[in-house]
């Protein structure tokens, strides 16, 4: 596996923050009906296809992997942070969680019915993102779906913007720019959900979840 500096830094930062992150986000879907809605739609389109497993890439403590499993998907999680994977295994002993990098997945070509990447690309330097999107395409079966979540740039004409994430350096993307990168990787946009920030949110960023399909 090629080790990038950004990935080493992200892994170390999430190893340190893992317990706090798990505590903060364990029940976060409960108060997020729109997130549950798009995860539900993702689960339905994946289940309607032929192929089997769904990988939650950058799964953190595994709460969303478990949500997908509860929706009936054969879901498993992968994360760069061993501490996150340990917490995920403890919380969900019936599910499979592996340490790994989204840039070099230990998954055969075309094996997956679905890929979920929920705020896990945010720490990827923009120059490295195209290779990760090609990796998502490689592991998806034809007709398989990707649901990818990220924060939007304030100005849509800016393709990317750095922001000071609490755990590790992070990036936002313009939704159109990211949709273009997905297209170049062979993934066609099916739908996107853009949530406006709530007054109580610490960061006033739009949150984007983009559903795409491998042709
Ligand atoms: C903001 S958290 C999101 C966790 C979870 N997806 C969620 O929705 O709460 C980002 C996670 O992605 C993981 N991550 C970031 N870059 C990664 C990479 N290149 N490969 C694997 N995991 C990565 C981090 O270790 C961290 O657990």
Question: What can you see in these coordinates?
Answer:
With 215 residues, this protein is an alpha/beta fold. It has one domain (5-214): Vaccinia Virus protein VP39 (Rossmann fold, 3-Layer(aba) Sandwich), CATH 3.40.50.150. The protein contains six helices and nine strands. Helix 1 (5-25) packs parallel to helix 4 (82-91). The two termini are 28 Å apart. The mean pLDDT is 94. S-adenosylmethionine is lined by residues 7, 10, 14, 25, 58-60, 64, 79-81, 84, 101-103, 118-120, 123-124.
Query: Architecture in CATH?
Result: 3-Layer(aba) Sandwich
Report the helical percentage: 25-40%
The CATH homologous superfamily is called Vaccinia Virus protein VP39
CATH class: Alpha Beta
- Order of neighbouring strands in the sheet with most strands: 3-2-1-4-5-9-8
The structural domain count equals 1
Strand content: 25-35%
Low-confidence stretches: none
- Strand tally is 9
Ligands present: S-adenosylmethionine
Structural class: alpha/beta
- Strand and helix order: HHEHEHEEHEEEHEE
The gyration radius over C-alpha positions equals 16 Å
Mean pLDDT: 94
Cα(first) to Cα(last) distance is 28 Å
Summarize the structure.
The chain is 35% helix and 26% strand. The protein contains 6 helices and 9 strands.
Write a concise keyword list for the protein shown above.
215 residues; alpha/beta; Rossmann fold; 7-stranded mixed sheet; two-stranded antiparallel ribbon; 6 helices; 9 strands; binds S-adenosylmethionine
Helices and strands, with pairings:
Elements: H1 5-25, H2 33-48, E1 54-57, H3 63-70, E2 75-79, H4 82-91, E3 97-99, E4 112-118, H5 129-139, E5 140-151, E6 160-163, E7 170-173, H6 175-184, E8 187-195, E9 207-214
Parallel strand pairs: 1-2, 1-4, 2-3, 4-5
Antiparallel strand pairs: 5-9, 6-7, 8-9
Helix pairs in contact: 1-4
Bound molecules: S-adenosylmethionine.
S-adenosylmethionine (SAM) binds at residues 7, 10, 14, 25, 58-60, 64, 79-81, 84, 101-103, 118-120, 123-124.
């Amino acid at each position: 596996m090629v080790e990038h500096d950004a990935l080493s830094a992200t892994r170390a930062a999430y190893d340190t923050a893992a317990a706090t992150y798990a505590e903060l986000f364990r029940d976060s879907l409960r108060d997020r009906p729109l997130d549950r809605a798009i995860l539900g739609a993702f689960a339905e389109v994946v289940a309607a296809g032929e192929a089997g497993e769904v990988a939650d890439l950058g799964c953190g403590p595994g709460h969303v992997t478990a949500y997908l499993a509860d929706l009936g998907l054969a879901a498993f999680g992968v994360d760069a942070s061993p501490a996150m994977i340990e917490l995920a295994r403890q919380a969900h002993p019936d599910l499979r969680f592996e340490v790994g990098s989204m840039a070099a997945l230990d998954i055969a070509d075309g094996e997956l019915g679905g890929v979920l990447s929920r705020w896990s690309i945010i720490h990827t330097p923009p120059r490295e993102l195209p290779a990760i999107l090609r990796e998502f395409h490689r592991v998806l079966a034809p007709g398989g779906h990707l649901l990818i979540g990220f924060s939007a740039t304030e100005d849509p004409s800016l393709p990317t913007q750095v922001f000071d994430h609490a755990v590790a350096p992070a990036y936002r993307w313009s939704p159109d720019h990211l949709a273009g990168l997905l297209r170049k990787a062979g993934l066609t946009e099916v739908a996107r959900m853009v949530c406006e920030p709530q007054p109580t949110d610490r960061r006033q960023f739009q949150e984007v979840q983009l559903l795409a399909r491998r042709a």
